[in-house]
Design goal:
heterodimer, A: 793 residues, alpha+beta, Aldehyde Oxidoreductase, domain 4, Aldehyde Oxidoreductase, domain 3, 3 domains, 5-stranded mixed sheet, B: 295 residues, Uridine Diphospho-n-acetylenolpyruvylglucosamine Reductase, domain 2, Uridine Diphospho-n-acetylenolpyruvylglucosamine Reductase, domain 3, Enolase-like, domain 1, 5-stranded antiparallel sheet, 4-stranded antiparallel sheet, 12 helices, globular
Chain lengths: 793, 295
């Protein structure tokens, strides 16, 4: 198929506004007589609030009032309603909002907040998942208010238990095979580090309607939760979003919006603003990852895997409104891209007294891939096959059943092609690059797969409106947070409408009053789902144009063809009418007008169903993307530092809509993946307080860290039948394979296995020192085998 | 989050003394790159900030000059200004190496040498480097001027009893003097960081080596972020000198410097264990970097 707009490198449609600084972000909005709120946060991880003293704060000039949890009955949460916007009676993590000081100026709000004193009765706290799951562990929530479809264990800290049980164990009983191996993996909490901190401005008018301007990924979801919490009809709620300076999941669902609205309710008719500081971004929103995983794999001497048993714990902090949905997607992919006949998977979401866990790029999948790919490495080591062979022996192939019982389709993706591309890059690198003195070179690779995690009615919709001059406004409510959605949708709309891209304008400011429904801009689903909705809307709009032409030409609309410039009669091209004459219905020479201005509507939702409670089976994943990533790195033996030299990524993303943007998306994700694997870690002190809530000590990769990394990005384009132009999901995926590939490469370099991330220099160095002779003989063996160039002091 | 504070900007030294006497408790603002971060984090509860950049009658503040005896560096000279002053580079290589990795371009454009030293962060880039160059600190107060070696000043106890820079009676550091090393000297600055980009040192080591007229090798070794203040290691220097250029066995020296290091526990940047291990690694790297051993 020949495309005119898709598959082309259209530059970002918002590029000029962004580089000239005129693109509007929520923080750029200012309203008359705005009030500023400063949040007083808990200094205890688990405690009963005895009393809040705020008389001194009220004396501060400019302070208009102080709101505490006692003033409200609202409760928030996506699939588990467990969190009040302001703590009520009890605090469950350090940083939890306890009170909010509202003032005429930021300064007064700050000064007031410093004068609020809170008296606590400290309760025993738990910080690790395993401790929180132990019997007699302090109970963080007395009751777990989960929605149907989730499986909490009341009376414990387990708010969700997702199970997979499929197949029969090899030789009747698990671990009866000749070979079995186990491993544990731990991934601490990470921070999203979006460039733009969260900001929300809200006004509650005297007629009980509310306006909310917020840096959120999902305006309709925000509306949904506000409507539920505040018992307001949705028609009375206006949620508007502007450009986002990064999301990575940290602005999905709701975050500070309910609190801002709660404050606005106390100051009716006035605009109230909450704008978080960088530090508050670490403990005032949500954190990511937080895995404790353990698995046992059953296999045979031929390297065939027969069974896998996994325990997967998510340390979800004090509230689980967001985390509850991450448990299942992570659980589903702990078996990776492999066909394993027997699965016994237990994924638990666990409350602890750390800050709440939320969506973070790839939603449980990087955690799961860590387990799946370690499994492959272990089987390879024990059977003597290469890990590449083990991967290929056990790969999920079309026709196989995946972990949730879906039959793998040809168009789920070609993982073999991806793996071959990456292996080729690694091979080339081995023979063309030598490592320096005192550096040990290693190569590693990881496969992955991901499906969007979403509800079974998470619709995308679009409205396409033709204007009098034949330009088009495409209205969607998905947000552009830097991923380039406006540009890909422009290309898809142009393709569907047979128009040049410059005639298309996609809404950059979704507003729940005027733009059509969108569940959320999450899960990498927008190109695929919004794309499909836009296509349908385009067909609908074209139909309207044809109906106008039918009136004008006296033909049936069925016999007319639209080509982007004119509508012509199927059997005689000479009979045609330019579309500009069809934009306001059709006006006959005598002035009589018929038809209507063409507007199209389209909606898309794939068929899905709930998972079975006991077996985890069911159509809970609606679209798959497969990929493979490989890493070449050096381990500096004297410092323990890991120096990533080359990263190769190959993903089957179906039809590539915009190659340059897709490649940039991959490269960004690779860098984020490297950060989370070797640099980043939220450090807690013994009381559960974050020690490094700023960039001085929370280190993310800088250009200096990445400039020396050779990056190769490949796309395999297996046409996906589920998207009109064959495209698949991409946004989150290229972060998934990096950590397991790095672990495998480090193992290759120095022969040591790590079961904890990040691989900080000091962690690596310590293990090298502890296993000095083993490391030396590993390196010498490799050199003797002349595997590839290794030099050692 | 900034807590409200009073800002003063005296134009003369006597005006400074007047304000200082009046407010008693204050923080000095030179470049501000450390102070503002601390204030924003709420660490330094300072109600009064005195900006000394506008003091006109202390020309030493801005001075930067390499003469026969050594290098004069005003305390308000920024790291960028130092880097631009190429005349000092051949004689004080380690200082230039350290300055180059201090902060980022924006920080180096503002951060001052004096601020870096007086803030007395244990891992400060200028700290360990100044120590190997035997830096002398020139101080001015109400009673006049005095000078003291940096090493001595570091070891003096601050009012809170913690080791660090301690000035008395509203004194200000006006400038530093770094005496030149003999010709044919070698110096190097090494550090470990968590990021290849802008980062604070997890630990750093400054090292200098030169040959005396009697062909005896002399060494200078100092390190930062391995104790509450940057430290000079004279014992290590002795040990290296006694080997007199024959470095076949460095193990003992390496072990010694690790033993002498006393990093504080609970650092966010590196553990005690890692710092002790790496200070000896850096020392080894430094010793091997000396060109005349390679000949």
């Amino acid at each position: 198929m020949v495309y005119k707009s898709i598959g082309k490198n259209l530059s970002r449609v918002e590029a000029i506004s962004k580089v000239t600084g005129t693109a509007k972000y929520t923080a750029d909005l200012h309203f008359p007589r705005e009030l500023f709120a400063r949040i007083v946060r808990s200094s205890e991880a688990h405690a009963i609030i005895k009393r809040i003293y705020f008389d001194e704060a009220l004396k501060v000039k400019g302070v208009r009032g102080i709101v505490t949890g006692e003033n409200s009955a609202e409760i928030i949460g996506v699939c588990i309603k467990d969190q009040p916007p302001l703590a009520r009676g009890k605090v469950r993590f350090i940083g939890e909002p306890v009170a909010a000081v509202v003032a005429d100026s930021k300064e007064a709000a700050l000064e007031g907040s410093l004068k609020v004193k809170v008296e606590y009765e400290v309760l025993p706290a738990v910080f690790e998942s395993s401790e929180a799951m132990a019997e007699n562990a302090p109970l963080i929530h007395e009751h777990i208010p989960a929605m149907p479809g989730f499986f909490p264990k009341q009376g414990t800290n387990i708010f969700q238990h997702f199970k997979i049980r499929t197949g029969e164990p090899y030789s009747g009983k698990f671990q009866q095979g000749k070979f079995s191996a186990s491993a544990k993996m731990n991934w601490p909490h990470l921070a999203h580090c979006q460039m733009e901190p969260h900001v929300t401005i809200a006004k509650w008018s005297h007629d009980d309607s509310i306006e909310v301007y917020t840096s959120a990924q999902s305006p309709f979801d925000v509306r949904h939760f506000l409507s539920e919490s505040f018992h307001l009809p949705m028609r009375k709620i206006a949620v508007t979003t502007y450009f986002l300076g990064g999301g990575f999941g940290g602005k999905s669902d709701v975050t500070i919006e309910p609190l801002t609205v709660l404050l606005a309710k106390h100051f009716k008719g006035e605009y109230v603003r909450i704008q978080l500081d960088r530090e508050e971004m670490f403990f005032g929103t949500v954190v990511g990852r937080g895995l404790d995983g353990e698995f046992t794999v059953d296999f045979d001497e031929n390297g065939m895997i027969h069974g896998l048993k996994v325990t997967y714990l998510l340390n979800s902090g004090g509230y689980a409104g967001y985390a509850i949905n991450i448990v299942q997607p992570g659980g589903i992919v702990t078996s990776g891209t492999y066909n394993i006949p027997y699965l016994e998977i237990d994924a638990y979401g666990v409350y602890t007294n750390k800050p709440p866990l939320g969506a973070y790029r790839a939603y449980g999948h990087p955690e799961a891939a860590l387990l799946a790919e370690r499994m492959i490495e272990l089987v390879a080591e024990r059977t003597g096959y290469t890990s590449s062979e083990i991967r290929k022996f056990n790969m999920l192939r079309p026709g196989n059943k995946n972990s949730i019982g879906q039959t793998v389709r040809e168009d789920d993706g070609n993982i073999f092609a991806c793996m071959n591309l990456v292996e080729e890059d690694l091979e080339k690198h081995k023979f063309s690059h030598h490592s320096e003195n005192a550096h040990a070179r290693g190569y590693g690779l990881a496969n992955f797969l991901k499906a969007p995690g979403m509800p079974t009615n998470g619709f995308s919709t679009a409205i396409i409106r033709f204007n009098e001059d034949t330009t088009v406004n495409v209205m969607i409510s998905a947000t552009d947070m830097g991923q380039g959605l406006l540009t890909t949708i422009t290309q898809i709309a142009a393709e569907a409408l047979l128009l040049p891209v410059h005639k298309i304008e996609v809404t950059s400011i979704p507003d729940t009053r005027y733009t059509p429904y969108e569940w959320q801009t999450v899960a990498s689903r927008s190109t695929w789902m919004v794309g499909n909705a836009v296509y349908k809307a385009a067909q609908d709009a074209i139909q309207k144009i044809k109906e106008n032409a039918a009136i004008a030409m006296g033909q049936s609309a069925h016999d007319l063809v639209y080509d982007g410039k004119k509508v012509f009669y199927l059997f005689d091209k000479e009979k045609n009418i330019p579309i500009e004459k069809l934009m306001l219905g059709y006006t006959f020479p005598n002035g009589k007008t018929s038809g209507m201005p063409p507007v199209g509507y389209g909606a898309y939702m794939p068929e899905m169903e709930y998972s079975d409670e006991k077996t985890g089976q069911g159509d809970a994943a609606s679209q798959w993307t497969y990929g493979c990533q490989g890493v070449a790195l050096d381990v500096d033996l004297s410092s323990g530092q890991i120096l990533v030299r080359m990263v190769s990524s190959a993903l089957d993303i179906g039809k590539v809509i915009n190659p340059v943007m897709a490649k940039s998306q991959v490269e960004g994700a690779v860098i984020m993946g490297i950060g989370g694997s070797i640099m980043e870690k939220i450090q807690y002190d013994s009381k559960g307080k974050i020690r490094n809530p700023e960039f001085t000590d929370y280190k993310i990769p800088t250009p200096e860290d990445t400039k020396g990394i050779e990056m190769h990005t490949h796309f395999v384009e297996t046409f996906d039948q589920r998207m009109v132009y064959g495209a698949k999901c991409l946004g989150e995926h290229p972060v998934i394979g990096i950590a397991p590939a790095i672990l495998a490469a480090v193992k290759d370099a120095i022969g040591l296995e790590f079961n904890e991330l990040p691989l900080h220099a000091e962690v690596v160095r310590k293990k090298i020192q502890e296993n000095h002779s083993q490391v030396l003989s590993h390196i010498q063996n490799k050199r003797a085998k002349n595997v590839y160039s290794i030099s050692l002091l | 989050m900034f807590i409200p504070f009073h800002y003063y900007d005296p134009k003369t030294f006597s005006e400074f003394l007047e304000i200082a006497n009046q407010v008693q408790n204050y923080q000095i603002l030179a470049g501000g790159t450390d102070l503002l971060v601390k204030m924003r984090g709420g660490y330094a509860a300072c109600q009064n900030v005195i900006d000394i950049k506008k003091i006109q009658d202390v020309p030493e503040f801005q001075k930067i000059e390499k003469n026969q005896d050594g290098l004069v560096l005003g305390s308000l000279v920024t790291f960028s200004e130092l880097l631009d002053y190429q005349e000092g580079k051949p004689f004080f290589t380690a200082l230039y190496e350290a300055s180059k990795v201090m902060g980022c371009h924006e920080i180096r454009n503002r951060a001052t040498i004096g601020g870096n030293i007086c803030n007395a962060a244990s891992g400060a880039e200028a700290g360990s480097v100044f120590l190997i160059f035997d830096a002398v600190v020139h101080i001015r107060g109400a009673q006049g001027t005095r000078s003291v070696s940096l090493e001595e000043l570091y070891q003096s106890k601050s009012k809170a009893g913690k080791p660090g820079i301690s000035l008395q009676n509203h004194e200000l550091v006006t400038h530093f003097f770094l005496p030149s090393l003999p010709e044919k000297s070698h110096s190097i600055y090494l550090r470990r960081t968590r990021s290849a980009g802008m980062d604070l040192s997890s630990l750093n080591l400054s090292f200098a080596c030169y040959q005396e007229k009697n062909h005896e090798y002399k060494y200078r070794v100092a390190a930062g972020a391995i104790a509450p203040i940057p430290c000079r290691f004279r014992e290590i220097e002795q040990m290296l000198s006694s080997q007199n250029g024959n470095h076949s066995s460095l193990e003992e020296v390496q072990k010694k410097i690790a033993d002498l290091s006393q990093p504080r526990p609970n650092s966010k940047r590196a553990s005690v264990e890692y710092k002790k291990d790496q200070v000896s690694e850096l020392l080894m790297q430094a010793v091997h970097s000396v060109p005349f051993f390679r000949l």
